[in-house]
């Protein structure tokens, strides 16, 4: 069942959903402060703690040599399923991508002190569809820590979701996914970019065509966020959810989460299994 404006209304600050969507269409991003209560943030932090304790760093320049990334969060705690279907994020996602949208990725990103800025990129570039065009994805950014000017708040270029450029100065190139060289950071600084600073518990939402990058962490503490990313129902997901989330675990997830990870159909029949709806393969209560 699709989300409604009423379900998102507690966080819309008295404005209509259409007014927020108009702003989203114009700027390419939205920020809602303090959506999650502090006790919920603390529970999320505790659920992530054992995975962050492994201190696995990025494998290449894009992931970050001083960044911890925890993937496949749906297989690690039911708390993360709640984030994936939070009414506020999902209302804007479904309005943009349709009810048949999918969860493309769900990961935690922990920037350690000394991490450099990422290359510029837009999240739905993997679809390979020329710009300008409507977005094929939506990204949500849940601030577990405060994101600040110093600790690596995500940098964005407002309005860039409307650009036709496939590349900008300092944007990601194939070598960024192969090695840890970081010799292009200074040329990526832009006067038209801003940082999405927000207090812990806040939510930022961006269109998949918005140019952005993870900022440099110049502070003495880590900066932790969780980012669910969504895609249109016919676009391949970044994470292979059918393998990342075992079938027996998927059967215990909320129905909407199951649909988002692929136990659903994009009309008229994309996603079937041997002619059957994939949900028929799950044993659910």
Describe the structure.
- This protein is α+β, with helices and mostly antiparallel strands and 285 residues long.
- It contains eight helices and nine strands.
- It has helices at residues 5-8, 17-27, 38-52, 78-84, 87-97, 241-244, 247-250, 255-261, and strands spanning 29-32, 67-70, 102-111, 137-143, 155-156, 194-195, 203-207, 212-213, 223-231.
- Strands 1-7-4-9-3-2 form a six-stranded antiparallel sheet, covered by helices on one side.
- The mean pLDDT is 93.
Write a concise synopsis of the structure shown.
The protein has helices at 5-8, 17-27, 38-52, 78-84, 87-97, 241-244, 247-250, 255-261, and strands at 29-32, 67-70, 102-111, 137-143, 155-156, 194-195, 203-207, 212-213, 223-231.
Supply the key terms.
285 residues, alpha+beta, six-stranded antiparallel sheet, 8 helices, 16% strand, globular
Summarize the amount of helix as a percent range.
Answer: 10-25%
| Total DSSP helices | 8
The structure class reads alpha+beta
Query: Biggest sheet, in brief?
Result: 6 strands, antiparallel
How much strand content do the residues show?
15-25%
| Poorly predicted tracts of residues | none
In spatial order, strands of the major sheet run: 1-7-4-9-3-2
Give Rg in angstroms. Answer: 18 Å
The general outline is: globular
Number of strands: 9
Gap between N and C termini, in Å? 19 Å
Nearest-integer average pLDDT: 93
Helix and strand arrangement:
Layout: H1 5-8, H2 17-27, E1 29-32, H3 38-52, E2 67-70, H4 78-84, H5 87-97, E3 102-111, E4 137-143, E5 155-156, E6 194-195, E7 203-207, E8 212-213, E9 223-231, H6 241-244, H7 247-250, H8 255-261
Antiparallel strand pairs: 1-7, 2-3, 3-9, 4-7, 4-9, 5-6, 5-8
